[in-house]
Specification:
419 residues, mainly alpha, Growth Hormone, Chain: A, 16 helices, 78% helix, globular
Amino acid sequence: MRGILVPAMTTPISAPVARIRIPREIWVLVAAAFVIALGFGLISPVLPQFAQSFGVGATASAIVVSVFAFFRLVFAPAGGALIVRLGERPIYLTGLLIVAASTAATAFAQSYWQLVVFRGLGGIGSVMFTVSATALMVRLAPPSIRGRVSSAYGSAFLIGGIGGPAVGGALGGLGLRVPFLAYAGALVLAAALVAIFINGHSLRPPPDAPVLPMMSAREGLRDSAYRAGLVSGFANGWANFGVRNAIIPLFVAANIGKEPWLAGAVLAIYAAGNAVGMNVAGRLSDTVGRRPFIIGGLVVAGVATIATGLATTFPILVVFSIIAGLGSGALNPSQQAAIADVIGRERNGGPALAAFQMSADAGAIIGPVLAGALVDSGSFALAFGVTGVLSLVAAVPWTRARETLPREAVEASAPSMRR
């Protein structure tokens, strides 16, 4: 229910302010995100070790993580175009099923190159469902609660990500292929949730509704916040979607212990910190603004990432993982809300969203490969140090970017936050 703005005290108040509710369709996407993240968390602690079981080094095992992001990057423009042409729901469902099939095939890979191909093909489906979900949230979320919606969606991923790595590490003890089959099943379940509870007709505009103008990436580049978002998205993809998933399991195995559950526990602890930071920043960014949490999140995560490479014991690594998680948690919902502010509800943002997703995927491609090379030729400390510095550098454009939170959104959300 949309809130009613409270005028100045000199103007009569016509109605009380109601708390704006998150639409039902978004809650369905949130539930599906939890299932997807739970499944992805199953494979994250075992994927690098699975790659190394074929007799390859850190760089080659990191390529298995990067190839997924590479296919996402290559297919992102086509994914955005398909959303404009066919709608979000069918592209979302198709994407989930493609990743499910790819993940099941990965479980039966008989060589390193089969693993690379099967894992890479899943990136096509991944970009289809992630861009579709983002486009739906931009269109369905009321402007005054975009931060809260981004927080709810991101928190579902993170809560699933907390349990997933721990369970995946335990399943890895039964065999490195078992978590991939479990993840494929989780993706099919998520597709079933969306297919059953989101009606395709309810997402379509009325027949007499005007066609929304399309926002291109070129148009977005005129906005300082969109440009800064591309930089921070690249750094976030490099550090949190690429290097952390690719290098942390190898770092733990080399310096802490080789048991699969240790790497799973570290990733789960990072996700727990991420969830806390995301919930706090998601709500406050709707009243305080997006920029403070984006800048602060990049700085905190960057410093903690540099420190991670210096950890020598499991407790110290846990502390640095929590801090890094808090920082990236503050960044993510605020950054997503800022991009949604730039696009607005009056435009079809498929191409602009695809370009933003491509920036994160480019970071997730380059980061693990370069970090793996730094590990092979240098040290883990050097790999984490370069990654952390990149996050610090990415904060600089946001110090010059505009604040995207609309003034009317602050006026609408502030009363509901006090209730």
